[in-house]
Task: inverse folding
């Protein structure tokens, strides 16, 4: 068995730091897409527009039932050459990665939003109709201000989950923490052993766990509203 080397453990952190910025960047951009698109999906499904509702339901179920890694490959090898061929390679990977993360998690956040919307008391909808509020104002002034605070903890959990799935993008050469250790560190040190992967795991834990505690406190706060 290979002897544990603490020097290799600590040598991994500069490479991890180089990839951390990329990991956080993809997480934030992917979350923005997921939150926005998920809310759009939820509102459209609530409106129950014929055909549109059925298409959305089928799309959401398809995305939720297929692996994220497969979706990344489909976007990268089939969609990217057709739509993004004129852009720099780094930009192509950014667009593919953010789109894959955002769309995948939008299909989950849409159900979260839907639960929050359905939790708004029926009396609120009836009051808006009694006041003859336009549909847009009903959503922006009555429904969403009550629904969105209820779902913030669940959205936070999905952001944490997305952060931990960004390493899947290393398969298309996104320079996140995993890619940096698997490629750059391994090339310089002569292979990425367990020391380096433990360092990666501890970095994810050090960032994810405090965030999960904050989400838990937020959930308690929301529960008291």
Result:
């Amino acid at each position: 068995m290979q002897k544990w080397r603490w020097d290799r453990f600590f040598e991994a952190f500069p490479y991890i730091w180089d990839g951390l910025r990329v990991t956080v960047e993809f997480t934030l951009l992917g979350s923005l897409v997921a939150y926005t698109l998920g809310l759009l999906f939820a509102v459209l499904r609530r409106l129950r527009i014929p055909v549109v509702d059925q298409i959305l339901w089928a799309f959401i179920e398809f995305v939720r039932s297929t692996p994220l890694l497969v979706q990344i490959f489909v976007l990268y090898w089939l969609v990217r050459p057709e739509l993004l061929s004129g852009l720099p390679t780094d930009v192509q990977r950014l667009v593919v990665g953010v789109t894959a993360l955002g769309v995948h998690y939008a299909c989950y956040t849409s159900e979260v939003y839907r639960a929050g919307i359905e939790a708004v008391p029926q009396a609120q909808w009836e009051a808006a109709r009694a006041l003859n509020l336009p549909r847009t104002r009903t959503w922006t002034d009555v429904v969403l201000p009550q629904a969105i605070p209820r779902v913030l903890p669940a959205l936070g959990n999905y952001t944490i989950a997305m952060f931990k799935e960004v390493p899947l993008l290393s398969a298309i050469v996104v320079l996140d923490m995993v890619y940096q250790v698997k490629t750059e560190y391994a090339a310089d040190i002569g292979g990425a052993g367990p020391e380096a992967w433990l360092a990666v795991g501890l970095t994810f834990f050090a960032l994810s766990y405090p965030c999960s505690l904050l989400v838990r406190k937020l959930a308690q706060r929301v529960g008291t509203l």
User: Anything to note?
Assistant: The first helix runs from residue 6 to 47.
